[in-house]
Design brief:
Pfam family, one: AcetylCoA_hydro
GO molecular function, one term: hydrolase activity
Family: Belongs to the acetyl-CoA hydrolase/transferase family.
Bound molecules: coenzyme A
Protein name: Acetyl-CoA hydrolase/transferase family protein
Strand order of the largest sheet: 4-3-2-1-5-8-9
Organism: Azospirillum himalayense
């Protein structure tokens, strides 16, 4: 019975259908919706919105934590509901609409969105739509498999719609730590001093009179689309573990390393998976997305604690982990994304950040977002929050994409998300480039030698040698810097014909 989950009885009368709740949302509004990398997203109200858009003009600004599941971004895009979208997405249909210029996408550091809202540099938020597994006796909202930006959306919004999801286990209650930073410019330090630190409340504290509607749902989170580790991702993991082992032997890290962060996607998940067979133990995570590898590491006895903002699992892992999520209590904490990704905390903890590059260049600049410099893929996500502030900012990528027609290491990236100053280590399946303390000319030598695929190495060396002859601190042949990308556009391959 859903009423057990609405512990503030005065709210029982607020239960309505998704269609009735969606009527609170009108054309031109800004909506703050729960959802972070397909976890804990609102699942019913957005669909009702899409249906309404068939018969009336309905265009909104949609803010979330990060990407959504259940095809919500696709459905809203196809219904023409999205005027503006932020701070992250990973949907192929929305991606195309963004690249056609039909949806204005604001690609933001994930830690920043609510800071901008709180300081009224963006917003206001008209309606928050938040998935919950329960509402407490005082009207506090207990989130589900993610927190993302939900807490601040709910606190700042004029009205709140709660999607009470009966498939989300009540055991999730107690796994959230909702801490809201105090106002600037006199902000207190955030009291998170270890991955395990509890700083806030187990629910989102709001004035219950703001809850304008409650919708009961039974739809599960979508599963992650990550692929299992392959030979190349295993090689990437191997290089990284060897490097970290060297850091330990040289006394720069202990056997438990520093708290780990791993970005979304197949490669980062595979790298963490590789830690199962590593010589490290008593690992901790201070990350944003907790993927399959987090639970594999727990079950292998390698990981003692994981802090994140969402739990995003493959279908098999979801079915295995969710029913027994209570058994991870005390070892797992979900935080608002501004805390999981907060520069202050990441710098304090000395996080080892492992994120994926779409492409990088011979000097170590990283493009995480734009294919050929113009076409948005997903967004910067939390990679910038972590890379700039990490103890070690590590970027991983396969050296080749599209069956070797693209080299992921190029003379100059066509879009820079993480500049050379923020990138300590680059890893591809061919090797690892430790860039710390190296000047650009040395960085290029190391990257070309270790990370470029043999089929592109001579080309890269030739470019660099000719650039060196021209001179400069960071030598380039500007007229040729994008020639590999141009060749790909013209011939379908970066390889010369
Ligand atoms: N040029 C063009 N396309 C490239 C490419 C390149 N240099 N490198 C990879 N790709 C393509 C792949 O071919 C693949 O295409 P497909 O979907 O048509 O098969 C796609 O990009 C994804 O690459 P994949 O190798 O499967 O990596 P991934 O799933 O690990 O995703 C990112 C890689 C970079 C797209 C992803 O990590 C991302 O969005 N990162 C930014 C956000 C982030 O880092 N957040 C971190 C905190 S969670």
């Amino acid at each position: 019975m859903y009423r057990d989950r609405i512990r503030l009885k005065s709210l029982w009368g607020k239960v309505v259908t998704p269609e009735e709740a969606a009527l609170l949302i009108r054309d031109g509004m800004t909506i703050g919706m729960s959802g972070f990398t397909r976890a804990g997203d609102a699942k019913a109200v957005p669909l009702a919105l899409a249906e309404r858009a068939a018969t009336e003009r309905l265009k909104v600004t949609l803010m979330t934590g990060a990407s959504l599941g259940n095809d919500v971004d696709r459905i809203l895009t196809e219904a023409g509901v999205l005027a503006r979208r932020l701070p992250f997405q990973a949907d192929p249909v929305l991606r195309k609409a963004i690249n056609r210029g039909e949806v204005m996408f604001v690609d933001q550091h994930l830690s920043e969105t609510v800071e901008l809202l709180r300081s009224r540099q963006m917003g206001p938020v008209d309606v928050a739509v938040i998935e919950a597994c329960a509402i407490t006796e005082t009207g506090g909202i207990v989130p589900t498999t993610s927190i993302g930006n939900s807490a601040t959306f709910a606190i700042l919004a004029e009205k709140i719609i709660v999607e009470l999801n009966l498939t989300q286990p009540l055991d999730l209650e107690g796994m959230h730590d909702v801490y809201i930073p105090t106002r600037r410019p006199f902000r207190e330090p955030i009291p998170v001093v270890t991955a395990e630190s509890r700083a806030g409340l187990p629910c989102i504290p709001i004035d219950p009179s703001k809850i304008a509607a409650i919708v009961v749902t039974r739809k599960q989170d979508s599963s992650a689309t990550i692929l299992p580790p392959d030979g190349e991702t295993r090689d990437i993991a191997g290089h990284l573990i060897e490097f970290l082992d060297r850091e330990v032997r040289q006394g720069r890290l202990g056997r438990s390393l520093n708290p780990l962060q791993a970005g979304i996607g197949t490669i980062a998940n595979a790298v963490l998976h590789g830690m199962i067979d590593s010589p490290f133990h008593d690992l901790t995570m201070y990350s944003e997305v907790l993927q399959d590898s987090t639970f594999d590491l727990f079950d292998a006895g390698k990981l003692t604690f994981a802090s994140g903002s969402s739990i995003t699992l493959s279908a098999g892992k979801y079915a295995e982990v969710l029913p027994k999520i209570g058994s991870y209590k005390g070892r797992l904490l979900l935080r608002p994304q501004e805390i999981s990704n907060h520069p202050e905390v990441i710098r304090r903890l000395g996080v080892i950040g492992i994120n994926t590059a779409l492409e990088c260049d011979i000097y170590g600049n990283v493009n995480s977002t734009h294919v050929n410099g113009t076409q948005m893929m997903n967004g910067i996500g939390g990679s910038g929050d972590f890379a700039r502030n990490a103890h070690l900012a590590i970027f991983v990528t396969k050296s080749l994409a599209k069956d070797g027609r693209i080299s992921s290491v190029v003379p100059m990236v066509t879009h820079t998300d993480h500049n050379e100053h923020d990138v300590d280590v680059l890893v591809t399946e061919t090797g690892l480039a430790d860039l710390r303390g190296l000047a650009p000319r040395e960085r290029a030598e190391t990257i070309i030698r270790n990370c470029v695929h043999p089929s592109y190495r001579e080309l890269a060396l030739d470019y660099h040698h000719r650039a060196l002859q021209r001179g400069g601190h960071t030598p380039h042949l500007l007229e040729e810097a994008f020639s590999w990308h141009q060749r790909y556009q013209q011939t379908g391959s970066m390889q010369p014909v």
